[in-house]
C-alpha cells in the first residue's frame, strides 16, 4: 500500500514544492539497496532515505502491527487489502532471500520546519490511513494536484 501512496507523491510537480521552498522526503524501512529500483518503479523523484532498523519509526512511536483493516477510504490506495498483499508478495519474489522492510510497519506524516517547528503530524493507524496528499499540500501552503481519485477536484 505504501508503494501506491508513493506513486501519487511522485505526481507532485517539482515546481509545486520548489516555488514554496518545500522539501519532500520519504523514509522507508527497507535496506538502502532497494531505493533505486523503488524510485524507478514508482516514478518518485524526491529525496528518499532508509531506516531498516526502524529507529526513526520507534522514536516516533509508529505502530508495527499487521492491521490491514480499511476503516478509512484512502484516495491514494488503488488496490484492496488482498490484492495489495499479493502485489507486495510478488515484488518480494523478485528479490529472493532478501527482505524489503517490515510489511506490518505503519508510517507517519510530518510537516516540519523551519527549525524545530512541527506544523502537522499524523501517525498511521492502519495500512490505509495515510493523509490525503492534497491535504498535506494545503497544510504546506502549496497548490493541490489533480489526482484521479480525489473527489474534491471537479472535472468540467
TrEMBL record:
Superkingdom to which the source organism belongs: Eukaryota
InterPro entries: PXL2A/B/C (IPR032801), Thioredoxin-like_sf (IPR036249)
Protein name: Thioredoxin-like protein AAED1 isoform X2
Organism: Lingula anatina (Brachiopod)
Gene coding for it: LOC106178631
Amino acid at each position: 500500500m505504501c508503494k501506491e501512496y508513493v506513486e501519487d507523491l511522485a505526481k507532485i510537480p517539482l515546481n509545486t514544492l520548489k516555488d514554496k521552498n518545500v522539501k519532500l522526503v520519504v523514509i522507508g524501512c527497507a535496506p538502502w539497496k532497494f531505493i533505486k529500483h523503488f524510485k524507478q518503479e514508482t516514478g518518485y523523484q524526491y529525496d528518499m532515505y532508509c531506516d531498516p532498523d526502524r529507529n526513526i519509526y520507534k522514536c516516533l512511536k509508529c505502530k508495527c502491527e499487521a492491521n490491514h483493516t480499511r476503516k478509512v477510504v484512502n484516495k491514494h490506495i488503488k488496490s484492496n487489502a488482498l490484492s495489495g498483499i499479493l502485489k507486495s508478495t510478488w515484488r518480494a519474489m523478485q528479490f529472493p532471500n532478501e527482505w524489503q522492510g517490515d510489511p506490518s510497519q505503519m508510517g507517519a506524516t510530518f510537516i516540519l520546519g523551519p527549525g524545530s517547528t512541527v506544523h502537522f503530524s499524523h501517525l498511521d493507524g492502519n495500512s490505509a490511513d495515510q493523509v490525503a496528499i492534497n491535504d498535506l499540500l494545503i497544510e504546506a501552503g502549496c497548490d493541490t494536484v489533480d489526482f484521479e481519485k480525489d473527489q474534491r477536484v471537479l472535472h468540467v
